[in-house]
Structures are given as C-alpha cells and as structure tokens.
Amino acid sequence: MNGIVIFDGFWDTALSVVKALLPLLCVFLIFQLLFLRLPRQYVFNLLKGTLLAVVGLLFFLQGVHAGFLPAGEAIGEMLGNIAWKWLLVPFGFFIAFLTTWTEPAVRILCDQIEKASSASIPRSLVLYTICTGVALFVGLGMAKIIFGFSLLYIVVPGYVLALVMLWFSDKRFISIAFDAGGVATGPMAVTFLMALAIGVSSAMEGRDVVIHGFGLIALIALAPILSVMVLGFLLRLKK
Fold it and tell me: Which residues contact 109 (CB under 8 A, 6 or more apart)?
C-alpha cells in the first residue's frame, strides 16, 4: 500500500521530465551534427550525464510530491494550532535558512559567482547573505499570516527599495542580486515552505488559505535581491 502511494503519479512525473529535457538534448544534437563536431567520447559522456539528470530529477520530483508537500502541510497545520503564535516567526526564520542552505540552485549560483570573480567574491559570503535574507522575509511572511495584513505592504515597498538600491549598490552585485532572487525560489523552497505556509493558514481561524497561504514565494524571490544589494552597498562603502 505504501509503495502505491509513494509512486502515485510516477508516469506523469516521468513524462513531464522527458518533455523538459528532450528539447534541450535535441538542440545539442543538432548543433553537434552541424557545427560543434565534438569528440565521440565527449558526446557519450554528455549523454550519460543527461540520463543521470533525468533519473535524478524524476526521483527528486516524485519524492517532493510524496514527501515534502505532505510533510510541510502537516507541520504547518500543527504549528497553526499552537497557543503561542509568535513562535511561528523564529521557526520560519530557522527553517527558511536551512531550506535555502540546502537549495541546489543557490549553491550553483554561489560557485559560479566565486569562479567568475576569480574568488574576489567568496561563495560563502554570498550564500550566507542569501540565506539570511530569505530567512528574514519568511519570518516576515509568517508574521503576515499571524496578523493578517496584506502582502502589498511588504512587496511594494520592497521593490521600491530594490529600485533605489540600484543606484547605491556595487554594480557587480546588481545582476547577482536579481539572479539570486530567481534561484532562491527553487524546488526546496517552493515545495516545503509554501506547503508550510498553506498548512499554517489553513489551521488558523479566520485565515483564507488562498489569500494568506500563498505569497510566501514572492517574498522569497524579493529577499535575495535586497540582501545581496545591501551586501554590495556595504562593500562599496568599505572601498
């Protein structure tokens, strides 16, 4: 019975993974035949890597649907029923920091930043900055659910501040900041933190799941933009 639940919708997930990666593989093969002419061993290794990526992505997404989403909602419902609602804020901060820390896309971005800057921008500095920014905004998102104020009161001033920071931050960090906003909303954050927010809002009386449960991913996308540009501003002052 457990096996049936775990692999429920497996073939739909497999089809979506194939649809996502097959066009990229076709584009590479076309360029290989017409322009690149890479060595046969290189192409063979690339195909093996693609196969590993398909299998890994397939099992990851299936695990997300079978594990992360139900677990996030269950934890959120339990937390939404506690008497001390203020504990949701530090809990959101803590769990968001850990989730962002383990986000594969965030780590890849930090590695690429260190490589492209010839190690003048350490990966650990950017990683801690992104994780801290996301943690602060997820804590703020939990406060939004507790007190029921509008998402606009956070998002609109946040993006206005981001536009203002464009003029004061180190120029190297501006592009990094907006890329960081994209990678922070990866599969770990979307599956677990969004499910957590939905669970909390569904358990709290007077909270609409659609209005209060969603919107956390928008805050997660905004958080690294501001935190990385603040880092660029501080480094510019230091210079």
Answer: 126, 176, 179, 180, 183
Provide the domain count of the chain: 2
Domain identity same for 99 and 50? no
- How is 184-230 classified by DSSP, letter by letter? TSSHHIIIIIHHHHHHHHHHSTT--IIIIIS-HHHHHHHHHHHHHHH
In this structure, the answer to whether residues 69 and 159 fall within a common structural domain is no
* SS3 state of residue 143: helix
Q: Which residues contact 219 (CB under 8 A, 6 or more apart)?
A: 137, 138, 140, 141, 151, 154, 155, 158
* Cα–Cα distance measured from residue 124 to residue 133, given in angstroms and rounded to the nearest whole number: 14
For residue 118, what are the contacts with CB-CB under 8 A and spacing of at least 6? none
Per-residue pLDDT tens over the stretch 34-65 = 988 899 999 999 999 989 989 998 988 888 88
**Any idea what the Cα angle at residue 212 is, between residues 206 and 217, rounded to 5°?**
165
77-136 pLDDT, tens digit per residue, is 998 889 889 999 999 999 999 999 999 899 999 999 999 999 999 999 999 999 999 999
